[in-house]
Amino acid sequence: MSGGVDSAVAAARAVDAGHDVVGVHLALSRAGGTLRTGSRGCCTIEDAMDARRAADRLGIPFYVWDFSERFRDDVIADFVAEYQAGRTPNPCMRCNEKIKFAALLERALELGFDAVCTGHYATLVETDHGRELHRASDAAKDQSYVLGVLDAEQLAHTYFPLGSTPSKALVRAEAAERGLTVAQKPDSYDICFIPDGDTRGWLADKVGAEAGQIVDASGAVVGAHDGAHAFTVGQRRGLKLGVPAADGKPRFVLEVRPVSNTVVVGPKEALAIAEIAGDRYSWAGRAPQSEDFDCEVQIRAHADPVPARAQLRDGEVVVRPQEPFEGVAPGQTAVLYDGTRVVGQFTIARTVSAVPAAV
């Protein structure tokens, strides 16, 4: 129970379904004085109190479990290391993979519980081949992308009561009818361990800020920066280039090179990506029955899925979209779909440009 309306209503529905429900709030930070800033974050003292009040209203036991060390090691440290390597990580994917459906689920099973129930918007479907993960009914709230890291064993022990709900407005109305004080609580957003939203400043404190060069694809210096960690592929704003492009058009970040502390920029067309690949992959339930299959690929939580062809090749998942992707950064997660079903996911390790290197 995060302290938000979704997890509170999910717990209520689990109670209504006759399950033996225990509310658990995850303490993911040792900073005891952490308070919420606006609607950012999901793991503050205020959130824990909101979760406790919801549990009391539902008449279920409530506990706070301290997973701060695992969160620090598996999510925060990974986030920092990825940026240091010039990649763009998704900490929500790592949290679901390492904390909510690994550490939390492991402890729950050890204590004799059957499943972890959350307020995620996704649907589970039972088939002859086992349980499948599908998109939620409400496309605007669908969270199947960030759950793409779950494997067959984890899916067998999960429960998503909100997946078939047509809209978030109905969830809020239900919470109000149940007398839950979080009915109109704003959604959390941004990165929970950076509650003020200043990712650049937070990273500067963690990895340091060393000045370096901004160059174009030919290697010509066109500007300077205060730290390569502050840039990500596809970025346009904040470049402060001293040398304008010959055609006068804006330039975008094409690559971040941490070893040389260099940021490479170029025209928008150079962001087109013809192929992505990665070797850190997993399947959400049944693995594909072929090493070469059609699918749809989603590379961000709120991006549109793109028709593509996927191959298992030399220990990698290699995906070629029908139309080039735009602005793909190594470190992002690519989630593969077959219609509404999540097939699996991989962390993008490399990309192949759709544009000649001379651009």
UniProtKB/TrEMBL annotation:
Q: Please describe what this protein does.
A: Catalyzes the 2-thiolation of uridine at the wobble position (U34) of tRNA, leading to the formation of s(2)U34.
Broad enzyme group: transferase
Quote the gene name from the UniProt entry: mnmA
UniProt domain tRNA-specific 2-thiouridylase MnmA-like central: residue ranges: 202-266
Q: Please list the GO terms describing molecular function.
A: ATP binding; tRNA binding; tRNA-uridine 2-sulfurtransferase activity
Cysteine disulfide links = 95-192
* Primary location: cytoplasm
SUPFAM superfamilies, alphabetically?
Adenine nucleotide alpha hydrolases-like
Quote the record's binding site residues for ATP.
26, 119
GO BP terms in the entry: tRNA wobble position uridine thiolation
| Residues at the catalytic site | 95 (nucleophile), 192 (cysteine persulfide intermediate)
Q: Where is the tRNA-specific 2-thiouridylase MnmA-like C-terminal domain?
A: 276-344
What's the short name of a Pfam family annotated to this entry?
A: tRNA_Me_trans_C
Q: What is its EC number?
A: 2.8.1.13
What is the catalytic activity of this protein?
S-sulfanyl-L-cysteinyl-[protein] + uridine(34) in tRNA + AH2 + ATP = 2-thiouridine(34) in tRNA + L-cysteinyl-[protein] + A + AMP + diphosphate + H(+)
Q: Which HAMAP family match?
A: tRNA_thiouridyl_MnmA
Task: Give the family per the record.
Answer: Belongs to the MnmA/TRMU family.
Q: Which organism is it from?
A: Microbacterium mangrovi
Question: How is this protein annotated for GO cellular component?
Answer: cytoplasm
Q: Which Gene3D superfamilies match?
A: Adenine nucleotide alpha hydrolases-like domains (2.30.30.280), HUPs (3.40.50.620), Translation factors (2.40.30.10)
The record places the site described as Interaction with tRNA at: 120, 332
- Name of the protein in its database record: tRNA-specific 2-thiouridylase MnmA
Q: Quick check: keyword tRNA-binding in the entry?
A: yes
InterPro entries for this protein? MnmA-like, MnmA-like_C, MnmA-like_central, MnmA-like_central_sf, Rossmann-like_a/b/a_fold
Subcellular localization(s) per the UniProt record: Cytoplasm
Keyword annotations for this protein?
Answer: ATP-binding, Cytoplasm, Disulfide bond, Nucleotide-binding, RNA-binding, Transferase, tRNA processing, tRNA-binding
Where is region (Interaction with tRNA) located?
141-143
